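Dear all,

This email documents one entry for the complex benchmark we are building for the journal club exercise. For each entry we list the sequence lines for every component of the assembly. Then comes the predicted three-dimensional structure of the complex as a token string, followed by one or two observations. Please use this as the template for your own entries, and keep the labels exactly as they appear.
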Amino acid sequence: MAKWIKFIGKRIIYMLVTILLISSVTFFLMQKLPGSPYGNEEKITSAQKKVMNERYGLDKPVAEQYLLYMAGIARGDFGISLQFGDQPVGKIIAARIGPSVQLGIQAIILGTVVGIILGIISAMFQNTWIDTSTSLTAILGRSVPNFVFAVLLQLIFAIHLQWLPIGLWDQGFYSTVLPTIALSFAPMADAARFVRTEMIDVLHSDFIELARATGIGEWEIAARHGLRNAVIPLITILGPMVASLLVGSLVIEKIFAVPGIGEQFIKSILSNDYFTIMGLTILYSALLVAVILVVDILYVLIDPRIRLSEGDEE
Amino acid sequence: MGKIKRKVMMLVGALFVVSSLVGCGANTSGDDASSNKKSASNLADKQVLNWIATVELPTADSVKEYDTASSEQIDIFAEGLYKINGENEPVPAIADGRPKATNDKKTEYTINIKKGLKWSNGDPLTAKDFVFAWQRLFDPKTAAQNASTYFNIKNAQAINEGKKDKSELGIKALSDTKLQVNLEYPDAYFEETLSDENLFPQNEKFVTAKGDKYGSSSENTLSNGPFVLTDWDGTGLTWKYKKNKNYWDKKNIKLDQINVQVVKETATGINLYQDGTVDAAALSGDFIKQYKDDPGYKKVLALRATNLELGTSSNKDLQNENLRKALSLSIDRNELVNNVLADGSRAATGAIPKGIAKSPKDGTDFADAAGNLVQHDSAKAKQLWNKAKKELGKNKVSFTLLTTDDDVSKDVGEYLQSQIETALPGVKINLSNVPAKVRFQKMMSYKFDLALGGWTGDFDPVSYLNQFYSTFEHNHAKFNDPKYDQLIDKIKTKDLTDLNHRWEDLLTAQKYLLDKQVVIPLDQGAENYLVNTKVKGIVTHNLGAPLDITRAYFVK
């Protein structure tokens, strides 16, 4: 137990340092963005700009702005969004993150479950037409951009069959089905590819031969011995994918008119909405390092070859 | 597959465009006002409009608003002294009658306000609410981005720059129903200016109580217009309007409720429209061609002038007038709007777009009165280019054309490149596609060759011409001609006493500008919509927001 506390405690400290580094670098890089954060840039005068810079504290030296911003973060104040009528960034993120997270979680679950099943089937029927067709599905899922799927899904299931809404966020779970499926193709394809390769590897190893010799059925071997081993590399690639899915997808949210956070990041960068850029960068990096921590913990739990050692490698 | 991918990519590209359009409109609403009476019996039982918007509502604070997305919405729940009707003319809204000039210079006016007006919370709406809102507009603490548009109000600029106290602003409440406004110089389009959302009244008690939160959600916003804003959380993709019981003209408001849904993807919007989920859709790109014969199609010309801007001050070659003229003559604007843009845009005929002003004498539109000042003539272009070559002493010139990196701007850039290079052998155009903020920055540094830019003026044609006034900051060409400046000064001051003469001077100034080819006008943008044919009473106009849905109603 003490080992665990030490392990996790250390990781959390690294996490905080990482987030601090990322946000500091972003803050200073952001100053290099051309133009001002004011939307009416085409018509604004320089005298007005000066007045507004004073109002928003953007006339201060960058170092001072940085310290003020960090002090604000420590108090839980993420600043205001200039493209959203000076509303607090925290409020904007809080209001828009929900749908993105919901879609992200649903897509990850659907994608990995289907992907793992496809991967196992592929591996079990290696080099048959079943393998070829599932592999082809996986390649398509990976290489065709998800907005193509989104438009096709919308066309087939909403417009022609009229089973599901075209878009909007007003019918509860029904509204989430098509965007979830559209988002799930990438994790599905990745999961299927990895699980297939790993399964084939594992199924040819000696201990599986031994299991076969004891007379256990192929499917049971695959489920009990193969899958556990095959899933480990999957966890590595799923980590970053979870993080990126949770923060939303610009295109999917646009196509289905979902009130998510996906578009805000791009929009804030294009409009120099400094505090929104910072808020979302911090959110994104926090999610990413948190996911990495979870992956590390899962590794220890799933793979008995990795053990918590007193010294830890470092 | 590649083809499908490209198509879908085009769709996605198109949606970036629609959100960036700024617009106003042409009057295409002949059916509306007149049919109002006779159709009263034909009214449908359910009067709930499912409306659309293409971007979120950035702010509901009328003072801070600076974009079409906000002004369109604010017009639904708030109202100012005047409003623009379907003929692009100002009519009294909150005001009782027209403004009365009280001095000879026409810089002091009194305006009466209707009696017994109320805010949606029941508070009385008085002249003081205008004084408060206007002072707030120029208060540097508010940081209102559109403040400079109204620097003609006495002391506004000094207040905005922190040099004077806001109490010195040229507005006074003489009584609860009487306002006095002082201007720096006369304004030929004073009533139109007063219809702008930034000059709407605000309730001091309410705004002060809400502080920084004012206009950030429906609870934090007060209405005085036909409808009350509800169910808006400040960032969401949906909100509603309910009929305002305290509105002075409520008997003419037939809709009980308007539900607004933001749909950014054009294709999704059209699907929702055809499915009956919403009563309107915004069109863009290829969809316009597809739906332009649909009975629900509506096009509204915007007052955005897109120009090929010339960095005359930094590029020596462009200082040659014959070369500038050759460039302009080599561009086929009809092909540009019909085949390249194909979005309902109008080929420019001058520096001032169509629909902004009518002749005081006979009501002719300014653009029609001016005639076509930007011809396409490849032969003449070549001739002038040959002359320019001799004058410049070289056979080859090359320019970098700066455009924003969205699909439409890139297409226009490529089109201009091919037109110019084909018509004028020896002229080389290099394209530089950059983010909008970078383009603005380069243009404001006055160091560029050619740039695809534009201007959306105010209510007065002179606001387009003023762009080339020597000391104006956004005079990207740094055009400096005392004769032109004098003419603009005259239009802005002396001419105000004789509007017919002013009209002539406006025509002269535009011609002077284009004779020297200080700028190369290209096109005038348009907004395109599909609207449920059962919905009547929508008013379209060029000035202000393109569509006014406040008096809309459903027929059976």
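Observations: Chain B touches chain A through 58 residues (CB under 8 Å). The first strand of chain B starts at residue 48 and ends at 53.
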